[in-house]
């Protein structure tokens, strides 16, 4: 089991040199977010992730969480690590200052989050969910609800959860049955929720569940869903904890991976109904849930990147130590990293990871701009870009993460299949990321339905304009791969827009390949910009030349690979649609 | 956990209609292999796989094999199932008649093997290894060794193993250290072997290990390796078992999957040396081991196909039952198979599985021809094609199998991540297939180094000629995908041949994508031929029209997808090579 080392140099490159933290810290509210503060936080965060969180990753997998007389018991060490996490102030890094957070931009939060997930994904799911709940309560909560819950959740003294899924209602939330009946100033919630991450834990004295439910007068479908705050223990007016609420942990799921994270079945209202408080307007719970969901989708994208980085580090270390045979073109036995195919795997891992890092952090930057740009038009443009990027980051970075964990395992050969090596855990853990918070198909449907088609391709065209600007600025001979990606994206987008009315099923069947194409394009664009930054840095002087040369070579390789991948995706989208539609599911 | 249903219709299509079993049964030695016998065996085999082997698959995973005071204990039910397997005569289906086998062609053995692996891959590894050992002893054993070991191994009364790997010698067998010292008419073997599949079990009273070791006068490297027969119990002249040999099971590996299959560390010679018998010539053990290995590679390719089929069946069943939301273009809530993206996943699974079935069985057909064609030139051509196909079948069908198990899990959404569903086991089991019996990179190096380059591209050109013949026979407008695949294959092959001397590292870095390209081409060619067979059948009459129409639609979809995939692979091979070489592993 290898240790984790935070890739601080590349993180700093993306945040400071590629995306320009200084431009974010020029925005109102983010003045604190200086390059110096970033460096200090990064160093401290890396220390914590490497020394405290990472060593528990394997134990979390082996031991898992268990249910002991209705109470979840997490793996040894998790509880203490959580307390250290909270004591270090990490929980509130990007949370509102008014409730005790540090209010830092997502561009600074993203690398921290990457480190945590890479170090211990099962552990980090807990603060991930809490942050989403904080955002929802902060957005829509009454002053009373905010004051009652946010300070404890921002500090991490209490945690938060998302309660959406029911056995019959997964991707289809319209089917949910949990009911909420008004009673005085609150509601009584009754129903069963499944797949609740950290639905119970032994970290904190209280847990704040955000629960989707239907009011008695709710219209059918997704327009009749409301969102409720349901604490595990009721909170009294003086802030102290009162009675245990009527919510019970029924069981834990036995999962392929993330064993350290308790995935709960929760029963609300076995004893008459759990006390809950309406968040936002009645029947408008789904919009609100999407606030949490979008934050969580961004975070899960970062998670895909993180697990890829962790898996890559393990494979690289093994490839540097394991000696096997004489590599082609060499005279003596050497570490397997010198075998051409192993080098190809490692190079592809490196390139895709760096590209997804740029993409993920860029999405964080856009969240910040959408929040803080003083000019309304700029703010709206950033919001639109952020909306476009969310499904891409979630869908593309997590598919990359699963691919990377699988490819990294392959580097080890037979040793990769042995659990003690650790590579298998990364694959098992990574595998959930393309499923939860909306499967890749759900992301792709969002991208095509609500992003591409709804505005007639305007957001996508805006992105393509940015890509063209970069293309025009690239030195001659450097733009072939990016040009190919752009051409494929424009051709595929035009095809989907043209077909949407006549053949909607064809368009949505092409959504997943289209999402991958757009992921390559966006990340490829950022890698092309990275190459320009590296070229300028190399021209400016010898400092860090090895890093910049490597970045340049990596970007070139990525753009070649991306050009080929996008061409194939475009072919499959544009030409493959009728062949797919001609297949009859009844004959499968 | 869904049941397994053998896909008998498609199997019969490939064996009888596409590849033509009647042409194989026209070859000397295969006269028995009539279509009628095939039908009878298929039916019986399916019954056994579905009713006996499949129900144990989950228990094998949950319970696994364990080591109890030096003796492996397999999961409950495995031992009894093995005895039924042997009693049914299944073990010797394709084994030599003179030692009690049925001597049937591989074209008939391949579907049986697919069923067994699909039903219970961990179980079926045991007869897989035995068959390889039978082939090695049959090829190179003295009359005494053959008579002593083969009848019991062919019947399945004893099993066989392959002992290659040592901790320092995985892909690099030149590094192996196990020693064999002559003593009278036998040898004393000393050393440690790892990753020994069914290195011990409680199925049979004896186990016959084939062990690679070095003689005292062995030259260094792979040219100094000899192969020995080392039984667990010595066999006396009258055939009864004698003393326990000096081989000990040290431990079992804790693996990601195939828990039902005991993967052993074996210690030979703790008490002075295990008694072993030289197989074939001294120092020529590796060539001989490759006989076993090639048989095993073919079987593992079939395994990739098998696990894909099993995973697909589970996903399809779930997609037919699970109702979630209103699919695009429909008016009411419906099973998720009607959602365009789910349909895309299922269609792609179906197409790739059918294509790999055609490819895998075709490789079996070529093994039969290489063995039995009466004309020497025809036999040599079949042998060359078989040599070319072995790495392709192993590399392409197993990568497809891992992809399929992963994609099938995705169809379930969150339920796929829960172990009880069963989809996760298929992914965990499938994951070994791209590693053992030579990783995909090893297959790719074999394909490029020993197949493409060694004869200057002659074998590949011969295959391309066959593809062109099919292309010429396709109706107008049907050949675009296959033509694209062929063009990509010819362009990539020419590029690798032209670059080999000047840039060998570039060529071997492209080997894995090249193998995938050749897999698409070969399977695409067979799918194009399938389309022609289906078209002819539809023209001939209404019998089975739904099947043939589905086959035609599936082939068209596969050829579209394959054209895109091959184009991208060719781009990456031809244009991406220098960008990859420019990356420096020291900077990773």
* Helix-strand sequence of chain A: HHHHEEHHHEEEEEEEEEEHHHHHHHHHHH
Query: In DSSP terms, counting alpha (H) and pi (I) runs of 4 or more, how many helices of chain A?
Result: 18
**SSE class of chain A:** alpha+beta
Strand content of chain A: 5-15%
**Integer-rounded radius of gyration of chain A:** 24 Å
Q: Please name the two chains that share the biggest interface, counting residues whose Cβ lies under 8 Å from a Cβ on the partner chain.
A: A-B, 91 and 91 residues
Measured between the Cα atoms of the first and last residue of chain A, the distance is 43 Å
Description:
The structure is a homodimer of 588-residue chains. By secondary structure, chain A is of the alpha+beta class. Among the domains of chain A are: 158-284, Butyryl-CoA Dehydrogenase, subunit A, domain 2, CATH 2.40.110; 452-583. Chain A has 18 helices and 12 strands. Chain A has helices at 8-18, 21-24, 35-53, 57-63, 78-87, 106-140, 143-155, 285-321, 340-372, 376-411, 423-430, 440-453, 458-473, 480-499, 504-509, 511-540, 545-575, 577-581; strands spanning 66-68, 71-73, 158-163, 179-183, 186-197, 206-213, 226-231, 233-235, 241-244, 247-252, 263-268, 274-279. In chain A, a hairpin with a 2-residue loop joins strand 1 (66-68) and strand 2. In chain A, helix 8 (285-321) packs parallel to helix 10 (376-411), helix 10 (376-411) packs across helix 16 and helix 16 (511-540) runs antiparallel to helix 17. The interface between A and B is large, with 91 and 91 residues.
